[in-house]
Amino acid sequence: MPRSLPALTPATRMGLSIAAALTLYGVSFGALATASGFTFWQTVALSALLFSGGSQFAIIGVVASGGSGGAALGASTLLSARNTIYGVQMKTLLNPTGWRRYVAAQVTIDESAANAMVQTDHAESRRGFWVTGIASYIGWNAATVFGAALGDVIGDPQSLGLDGAVVAAFLGLLWPRLRSREPWALAVLAALITMLTMPVLPPGVPVMVAAGAAVVWTVLTRRRGGDLAPAEDEVDPGHDADPGHGAGGGSGRDGGAGR
């Protein structure tokens, strides 16, 4: 009798499900990028080298609206800055060595980091990260190629509504992250800044200004939270031994340090 295949672990199943969902966005990105004026190979290179969905949609959105390459690069860089934090967390959690460090750096995205951090077992964290990251990278790039080839045969993007699809796809990536009052407030602030600056700034620059405001908001909020933590400990020192109440503990509601 042939040996049966090993059962898929929860982290592996979650990673493959995430990769399947991201693959659908890859088709949209490929078609939208070529319909917005990017060549087939430019589109493929963006996915292969950048591999950050939100940042890639930001680039084609800025360029399609008439913004400069510098504005597109600036907006993309600000949006992908969070991956630096993920990289530090994955280094601490998984500690990849040798050539694996370079592969890990390339596949460190929101989804692979999240799947690694939600696991309670170290082996499952490693499976969650690598399965999600590698499967998503392969699926996203394959879908980009397919979408870019499809985009080449589309005549007028506006006739199919693709001129507004970039915004819709970007909102599709953003919507699952709006799960509490703070992200909603930040989204409203960024939208207001963008609308107020669009009439006076070149295309693409309002996005950079709004992203910069979001970074400042996040830094000030985290700093204020850190300043308040010791005061809470002084009010009720009996909770010091409770891992759910310290400054570094996560109760699940607030998401912890990296979730």
Short structural summary:
With about 260 residues, the chain is an all-alpha fold. The chain has helices at about 10-35, 40-50, 55-65, 70-80, 80-95, 100-105, 110-115, 120-150, 160-175, 180-195, 205-235. The longest helix is centred in the middle third of the chain and has 31 residues, at about 120-150.
Number of domains: 2
- Percentage of β-strand residues: under 5%
- Please report the number of helical segments: 11
**What would you call the structural class?**
mainly alpha
How far do the termini sit from each other? 44 Å
C-alpha geometry: globular
Unreliable runs:
228-259
How large is the radius of gyration? 21 Å
Element-by-element helix/strand order? HHHHHHHHHHH
Percent helix range: 55-70%
Number of strands: 0
Average per-residue pLDDT, rounded, comes to 74
* Largest beta-sheet characterization: none
Overview of this protein structure:
The protein folds into two domains: 10-177, no CATH class; 180-259, no CATH class. The protein is 70% helix and 0% strand. The chain is built from eleven helices and no strands. The termini are far apart. Mean pLDDT is 74; it is low at 228-259.
What order do the helices and strands come in, and which of them pair?
Elements: H1 10-35, H2 40-50, H3 53-64, H4 69-80, H5 82-94, H6 100-106, H7 110-117, H8 122-152, H9 162-174, H10 181-197, H11 205-235
Helix pairs in contact: 1-2, 1-3, 1-7, 1-8, 1-9, 2-8, 3-4, 3-9, 4-11, 5-7, 7-8, 10-11
